[in-house]
Amino acid sequence: MAKETKLDDSAGIYAKRTKQTEREKLGDMTFKEKVAYFNMYYLKKVIISVCIAGILGYLIYQTVAPRPDELLNIAVVNDYFEQEKLNDFLSDLNTHFEVEPGKEKITFDYSYYISNEDMSQNSISSIQKISTYVSAKQIDVIISDEAYFKTLTEDGFLISLSDLLPADMYTELADKYYTGAIKDEDLKGNVSSGPLAPYGIYIDDSKLYKSSGSAIEKPILGVVSNSPNKENTIELIKYLLGLE
């Protein structure tokens, strides 16, 4: 005979509980309770998932989407511009080169500041940036003041314009050249200079460049020796100096 117990109806608390499914839990909740439950357990996960998906999508787009063809990359050192005038100048430049938006572009980067006398962090960063971009063949033209242009010439960054320009154009611009020489230092520290050559061209009398709001008194333009867009650099010189 089974032994009787004295448990009453409250003994139900000892009964084995069945774990509710998420659907059952939600089914027993009011709308406000469902919102609070979602915010507590799922909202952070959803936000993180959306952010990750967005980042991945952006990276995939950047990798797969075609990049605009860069017709020219112009680096400007130690110059300052009036923004409204510069915008008009760049708009006219794009029009002259018939730049197709989204497919082609001209880069005009005037963020470089380099002083041989004041080696500030800004100067050091600009030197590193311009050296890296030149090595990577990402700069075609450099425009700067006379002080830094001398450094560019001596360091061998630029091509002689006698090797770049057509003969008739080279002769026509004879009175505008900046001449200098590449310097070389051997292992013993002895410095030698190469022959004088026209590595730059003064554009201070260019009405178009002045219209940009440039602050340099005597800007000089030089073409980087490893520029991948040399034909366009010639066209730029023609455009700025008003040559046919």
What does this protein structure show overall?
The chain is an alpha/beta fold. The protein is elongated, with a radius of gyration of 34 Å. A hairpin with a 5-residue loop joins strand 5 and strand 6 (191-193). The mean pLDDT is 85. It has helices spanning 22-27, 31-41, 43-64, 83-96, 121-135, 146-154, 161-164, 167-172, 207-210, 230-241; strands at 69-77, 104-112, 141-144, 177-180, 183-185, 191-193, 197-202, 220-223.
Q: Give unreliable regions as ranges.
A: none
The topology string of helices and strands comes to HHHEHEHEHHHEEEEHEH
Q: What is the name of the CATH topology of the largest domain?
A: D-Maltodextrin-Binding Protein, domain 2
The total number of structural domains is: 2
**What overall geometry do the principal axes of the alpha carbons give?**
elongated
How many DSSP H or I helices?
A: 10
Mean pLDDT: 85
CATH architecture of the largest domain: 3-Layer(aba) Sandwich
What's this model, at a glance?
The chain has 244 residues and is α/β, with parallel strands linked by helices. The protein is 42% helix and 17% strand.
Key phrases:
single chain, 244 residues, alpha/beta, D-Maltodextrin-Binding Protein, domain 2, 2 domains, six-stranded mixed β-sheet, two-stranded antiparallel ribbon, 10 helices, 8 strands, 42% helix
